[in-house]
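FAQ: What does the model actually see?

It sees only this:
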Amino acid sequence: MSLKENIIIDSTVERAILLGTQQASKAERETKAIAICLTESQEGKIEELCNVFGLSVRSMLNSAVKYVLFYREKQGLDISKLKEYPQNLGSRSFKLDLNAETFVELRKAGAIEPKEIAEYAITGITLLYEQNINIKPI
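And it is asked to produce this:
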């Protein structure tokens, strides 16, 4: 490989690294933390789901939000029409760190208020719990 080819490859690699770093910085800026209020039962469901799937609480909550967005689209329903939709929010404050991807998907779905986002997270936790943990005997 000639010196000229090495310089071109090196500059291409540097450019790719720079673009990747800029995109990562943009994604970090787009993450959002909100406080959600859970019941003791909802906290227990999150803990059990985290143990079963081997996920952190942050990953589990982001997964729950993404799952309810998927479920809502497949069912063609507003989440407030689902039986898993929380009638009341709990009193135990809990931090929900949304990753950039989840945050963008929520914005596309029109959920931008913290209360709405909390409802998505709680509905998702309930759906995942009912479908994966609360298994009825055959």
